[in-house]
Write a structure and sequence with these properties.
280 residues; 7-stranded mixed β-sheet; 13 strands; 31% helix
Length: 280
């Protein structure tokens, strides 16, 4: 966002908020290029993402000026880092990690991988081809508490905005999730109806599923029930074998995860309790 200012605001809703924001920005000679707003009427909450031409040297001064015309306790962000740093957690599946590393290599998005951490060595050689640090922390013969303690210590060696679970096949404890609250993003398959446990694609094939999907979401204490960032589907039919379904599932998973990371890196996602506001 060269020569532009990005402003993110969420607060209680009130009459005249758009006018108040616009008038304040005009005083700083900021010309609004895009303003996307949303009101959650049930919660009486207001969300807005504003992009302006021009840069304000004194961001705190602008923030204070906006706070004066907004309801109390308004959350205001001005020009958050537009190149998000991420740490990627993996197990053995490579498809999501490969997509992330290739996109970074060709600089096709505003995300920068700081490190890849796996509980197996399987993806070390691939990761290191991109000159990205890889750390293996095995869960074998360790208690869940000890494993997660070592994992937390390794993650905290890096500065990051988000931790991406790129098919990291471990259920994380509430303690781990709370340590990185609002920073954990997961990807998983979505079937209608839902199939849990081992071999979900085999179950889906046996039941003649017609839709394969994937969901990228924030991680919370409720397994696979965190606020959804992106979902998508692909239609399948009776000619698909289990292998075909697995292949289609991997394609949709990596597409959905990359889209979620792109949205996060562009600051287009705002948390709203159990939901998200996504300004695409």
């Amino acid at each position: 966002m060269h020569n532009q200012t990005l402003i993110l605001i969420q607060c209680q809703d009130a009459v005249g908020l758009v006018a108040n924001i616009s008038n304040t920005l005009a005083k700083y000679q900021l010309n609004i290029v895009t303003m996307r707003e949303y009101v959650d009427e049930e919660a009486n909450k207001f969300f807005v993402r504003v992009v302006c031409n021009g840069i304000v040297p004194e961001q705190k001064q602008l923030s204070d000026s906006l706070a004066e015309v907004l309801p109390p306790s308004a959350q205001i962000q001005i020009n958050p880092n537009n190149r998000k740093k991420i740490v990627v957690l993996v197990t053995k599946e490579h498809h999501c990690l490969a997509d992330i590393l290739v996109r970074q290599h060709f600089e096709t998005w505003g995300a920068e991988v700081q490190a890849v951490i796996g509980n197996y060595e399987s993806l070390r050689s691939f990761t290191e081809k991109f000159d990205i640090p890889f750390h293996c922390i095995s869960h074998e013969n360790l208690t869940k508490e000890t494993f997660e303690k070592q994992l937390i210590e390794q993650i905290q060696n890096y500065n990051f905005d988000y931790i991406i679970l790129a098919k990291f096949m471990r259920i994380l404890s509430p303690q781990f999730v709370s340590t990185f609250e609002n920073k954990l993003v997961n990807i998983h398959h979505s079937f209608l109806p839902a199939f849990i446990g081992a071999n979900p694609y085999k179950q889906a094939h046996a039941r003649g599923v017609k839709i394969i999907g994937a969901t990228a979401h924030f991680v919370t204490d409720q397994l696979d029930e965190g606020p959804i960032i992106v979902q998508d589907i692909r239609h399948v039919n009776h000619t698909y074998t289990v292998k075909d379904m697995v292949t289609a599932g991997k394609e949709i998973e990596k597409a959905v995860l990359s889209r979620a990371i792109r949205l996060l890196s562009e600051d287009r996602v705002m948390r709203n309790d159990y939901k998200t506001i996504v300004f695409e």
